[in-house]
Amino acid sequence: MWLIMLQLKDLPDSKILKKFAKRYPEADVSSVIQFLHILRIGSDLSDALDKFLGKYGLLQGRWWVMILLMREDDLILTSTALAEKAGVSKPTMTGLIDGLVRDGLVARLEDNSDRRRYSIKLTSLGQKKLDEIMPDYYLRVRNLMGVLPSERREELLLQLMQLKENSSVFD
Amino acid sequence: MWLIMLQLKDLPDSKILKKFAKRYPEADVSSVIQFLHILRIGSDLSDALDKFLGKYGLLQGRWWVMILLMREDDLILTSTALAEKAGVSKPTMTGLIDGLVRDGLVARLEDNSDRRRYSIKLTSLGQKKLDEIMPDYYLRVRNLMGVLPSERREELLLQLMQLKENSSVFD
DNA sequence: AGCAATTAGTTAGCTGGCTAATTATCATTT
DNA sequence: AAATGATAATTAGCCAGCTAACTAATTGCT
Questions:
Q1: Residues of chain A positioned with their CB less than 8 A from the CB of B142
Q2: DSSP per-residue codes, B36-73
Q3: Which site among A37, A68, A84, B99 is 20 to 30 Å from A7 CA-CA?
Q4: Rounded to an integer, what distance in angstroms lies between the CA atom of residue A4 and that of residue A1?
């Protein structure tokens, strides 16, 4: 879903590192390489998830919308609420919903009390699709994360959180 | 650069968890939440980097092309080589180069020995732009990664690599 | 020499991200 | 009751990713 920042085979060799170090002495090589690796691994995991969802004719965006709807007792949310919960802009959500409506996984229902507003509802076909995907998804996530013992995973997460909280250095 | 998968405020509450656990008993809640957090943090860091580059009128894709060119002694690569090194498809690279050419940061040079081929060269304006960005970038990466002591960072990376190597579970 | 296969690059058309601007409706205020 | 302001959703137009299909040129084989 994003640019694959760095092919591992393209880690700079020592000649290149020297060139860059000479021109930009403020570089800390190990932190740069680690940073790029973190971005890269996130991208790889995201791609793997997309490829998996692709087998069911979905991608992360639309799949996530369906999950958000399924969380609701009546399977309904407004477009704006969906955009907020998914963390995307409203125009992006419009596009995701358009695709889901086309595939019949979701329906737009008119709102009688406010004619600007549409209710978005997970259809029974959408629910069926989720019931196909989710067990498989959960199994695979369990297998993926299973390579690390749970204490390690907690540590890992804490450290990533620290980085994230520090991401304001780019402001 | 990718979908923001999960707003922290939208972590499922216990009522929702129960609903999903009942319907999908194969779910391992902690591994799912950790997995989503990892994706999310990668996306946040990537966004922060994009926003930073945006101050200089660039985004990750074009910036990375310029860095790859600067690595070469003659500042030249072919479009195909750039696509491979950046890990994107050839059509995507065509688009990135188009944008860079438009801004004068890169030039297309004809190749006399093979008229299908173009050489892509970093212009002096492009080099000037990199010289503006890179010191600032390196400083910020150093500050970002500095929150974790270097042994922690090594551990973190090792664990992420293990996850990555295991990402074939999604195949 | 000539035809087939390969290669470099682009175009077309899809997905999904964004901001800015627009349309339609609702709410408020006078 | 009318004008102003706010809000819901969409449209327009950009960037960046992809696959499939295409053009043009080179390579290789007989």
A1: 26-28, 31
A2: HHHHHHHHHHHHHHHHHHHTTT--HHHHHHHHHHHHST
A3: B99
A4: 9
